[in-house]
Amino acid sequence: MMLHGIRVLDLATLAAAPLVATYLGEFGADVIKVEQPGSGDPIRGWGHQRDGVGLMWKSVSRNKRSITANLRVPEGQELVRRLTAHADVVIVNTRPATLHGWGLDHEALRTVNDRIVMLHITGYGLSGPKRDRPGFGTLGEAMSGFANITGEADGPPTLPPFMLADGVASLNAAYAVMMALYHRDVHGAPGQLIDVNLIDPLTRLLEQTLLGYDQLGLVPTRAGNRWDISAPRNTYRTADGRWLAMSGSSPALALRVFRAIGRADLVDDADFSDPQRRLARAAEVDRVVADWVATKTLDEAMAVFDAEQVAAAAVYDITDLVADEQLAHREVFVRVGDHELGAMTVQAPVPRFSDAQGRVEHLGPRLGEHNAEVYRDLLKLTPSDIDDLRARGVL
């Protein structure tokens, strides 16, 4: 496996930070999930449950080993410091002041292991006037500018019904960890602290908003599924009550749409063929496309668009998604056996390499399931040591 030999201590909870450890574990890193005794990571109780088992936990904590340590007591803190000596990466999302009080901040841990790469994901970042505020992905989606430009023109700012800000932050953080490891292992540098928040990564994707404001003084408003750099670009309802999405992002694609729907006359009309002039008439373009699509079933419309190489796709619900032949061919979803649920279908690792493969060896473990093996193998604790720590509430 590509990351064989890399050990990660996942001290974080909920979504963004633990997802980074999940990605690393899919490609061979040994991920040790450190949880609070008794309760564990709150994501265990988050979202859908089956027979009292959290489904999100099962997926997000795939391939991880679960141990417990009470970080609120000195003995639990000392266990983590000792584990840090055997780790390459430590992932946290606790407030900086709390970590400092526990003696588990970067300054403290690098005295134990100066090669440690520490990732700290917070709501607002480790510096600035809002650094100590609690933060969640919803706030990142609001403050990044995403919610303000998402939704219908006459509707409210719209939040996504999934963890968008957490997911984008986790992807940024995962490649940051790999860069820090490369810098350490290839260039002989020490480990370092990586500071990621839930606002900056999503803001980084909203380039058009910033550039238009900085250079042209534009403040965008909500426009539904339209985007002011492309037309046609929307979702369109078919005669059988289904929906398809279309993008005319390149000049050639837009002209193909007109030909496909029998409006070749628009190809010769500069108001519609010229990209910038067409944007000024985006509402008219939408009406022309919508009127044509409304006369066709989804299958009929897609047959025409596929034949004309128009960039269009059906809007899938989850049943369509898992049944799609393209996704099935790429094995986007995998069925994994589990000792609590029997089996569960989850998303497979996303990056595809020519000479390596990500894997899901097991789903999220029971709380503290790997206490004995981790503390025995890494810290040389005996069974009686572990029993004593457990009896005193340290494990």
CATH architecture of the largest domain: 3-Layer(aba) Sandwich
CATH topology of the largest domain: Rossmann fold
How much β-strand is present in the residues?
Answer: 5-15%
Q: What structural class do the secondary elements suggest? A: alpha/beta
What is the CA-CA span between the terminal residues?
A: 31 Å
Spatial shape: elongated
- Note the total helix count: 18
Widest sheet, order of strands: 5-2-1-6-7-8
Largest sheet: 6 strands, parallel
Structural features, described:
This protein has 395 residues and is an alpha/beta fold. It folds into 2 domains: 7-197 and 350-392, Rossmann fold (3-Layer(aba) Sandwich); 233-319, formyl-coa transferase, domain 3 (2-Layer Sandwich). Helix content is 41%, strand content 15%. It contains 18 helices and 13 strands. The strands form 4 sheets. A 6-stranded parallel sheet has the order 5-2-1-6-7-8, with helices on both faces. A 3-stranded antiparallel sheet has the order 9-10-11, covered by helices on one side. It has a two-stranded antiparallel sheet with strand order 3-4. Strand 3 and strand 4 form a beta hairpin. Helix 1 (16-26) packs across helix 7. It starts with 6 loop residues before the first strand and ends with a helix. Belongs to the CoA-transferase III family. It comes from Mycolicibacter senuensis. This is CoA transferase. GO terms for molecular function: transferase activity.
Question: Can you tag this structure with a few keywords?
Answer:
3-stranded antiparallel β-sheet; formyl-coa transferase, domain 3; 395 residues; alpha/beta; 2 domains; 6-stranded parallel β-sheet; Rossmann fold
